[in-house]
Amino acid sequence: MSETINSVIVSVSILCPCMYKAARILQSVDQTVDPCSDFFGFACGQWNREHPIPDELTKYDMFTMLNDALQDRLKSAFVASRVAVVNTLRFDLFHGLKMTSP
Prior knowledge:
By secondary structure, the protein is mainly α. It has two domains: 1-50, no CATH class; 54-102. The protein has four helices and no strands. The chain has helices at 2-15, 17-28, 39-50, 62-100. α1 runs antiparallel to α2. 1% of the residues are buried.
């Protein structure tokens, strides 16, 4: 079932953002639960199984997940730019020493 939903998400994410969001919501739904007896389990059951709350947190929701992803991207960008700066300084230092040595 989730493979079908994933293929739908990939197909429609380009065509219509609202359909993409609807498909993402459908990923959280647990179709095996009767919504009349346990609506929360029906609406959020799949999400809760796929995204357990880490021990160090009191909650884990989409905002937490997006914040974690943003922090990872920022860290990667910072590390990449820092490496580029260090490499440039090494290059300049090496060529500067090469030019001044007899």
